[in-house]
Amino acid sequence: MTKIQTRDMTTGSAQKRQLAIDLIFVGLAAVFFLLWAWQSSYMDGPDELMRYDIVNYLVEHWSLPRGDDPSIINPIWGFSYAFQPYIPHIFSALFIRVAKLFTEDMHILIFAGRLASVFFGAGTVWFTIKIARKLLPAKADGWIFIFLVTFLPQMVYLNSYMNCESMAIFSTAVIVYSWIAGLERKWDLKSCIWLGVGLALCALSYVTAYGFLLCSFFLFCLTILLCQDKKWDFKSMIQKGLVVLAVFLLLAGWWFIRNAILYQGDFLGLTARDICGELHAQDAFKPSKHWTIKMSGVSASEALKMLFWEWKWHSDTFKSFIGIFKEMAVLLPTICYTIYKLIFAVGILGCIIEIPKLLALRKDGKWLEKGLFNWFMILALIIPNILNLYASYAIDYQPQGRYSMPMLIPLMYFTVYGITALLDRLIKNKLANLVLKILICVIVLGISFVGFWSYRVACLAMN
Length: 463
Prior knowledge:
about 475 residues; glycosyltransferase; transmembrane helix; cell membrane; two-stranded antiparallel ribbon; two-stranded antiparallel sheet; globular
């Protein structure tokens, strides 16, 4: 046997071993999500009851409800969530219909409905691993990123009850992976298809993730026009863009066409939802009467002062991004939030030190794909928070971190980039460096178990 054959066999066995480790990790993460999903026999996740109205309709009628169907309109708000995409609820209904073949136990049926979020969560973990292998080739660095994404308590919680946010996070992971693949392979057919899939999933998930649609468009166009061997190749951009668009329309177009038909051209369903709310909501909750900061006539500067200085919007949003459970009622111990503040602070410091390398757009007269990638990752991090802040200002004051969750992948990427850059600068001893990185993973996992215990205690008290 030649040396080349031996090397190929060694590489093949190493890849199989790595794949097995990755699959075991995804499986264990899914089990952890399942344990969270089993704890509560009540639909007490934020908006879960309104989400279940759609799921229950799908189970009973096996057809897609209109947003203004009287059987699912919330008696307080006067509308339903069926005006916007509810793809995860279709999967929930499938799981419940299967469960109904064996039992009518309500706890089991609720648990079955939550399996959709569990599977989207497991999918996010899988793509997070693939992203880590590309962005952070050092194994220890990659595992910090994987642990930070997988075991953020709020991330785990979102993967344990019926919602659309779990699919939104999954879509962002697919999109970021498609960005990496596209830059590696010069936007070949496969990477274009992956981008189309990710964009379709994003469009069919939750509006706070829509910043990734915008970022994807500009990253795709700019990297083809500026970074390929042939500059300003509009023909290639259009040809490849049509592939992305075709996949997007094939997977997501039907929903927006359906909305346009049902709601007189309102393909997003937002105007139709407000009209429905105006007709059916309790008086204080009608869109024209429901109090908002914007409606009160407060100027933008005064509104920001009110949100950040008086109401501490950023503090409440940060805490609920890390983890607050059961309709914003069950918090983690204060030390857990403090530890995450420290983790993010170190990450930010490391990124600031590395700014010239991290955000460089040109070198030797050439555009840098990695620089463009990092700039759009920053933009993808910022946009969900702007949308979240605007919603609290103009729609309904809800300082909830789940609305900022689409920033999870970019945030944890920059956090790990900064932490590892700082550690590698300050700690030259390889063993000590590795021990500290392992310690970060252990602490993150430990906080997630603290969150599980806090949630379990609250569920037992209710059950």
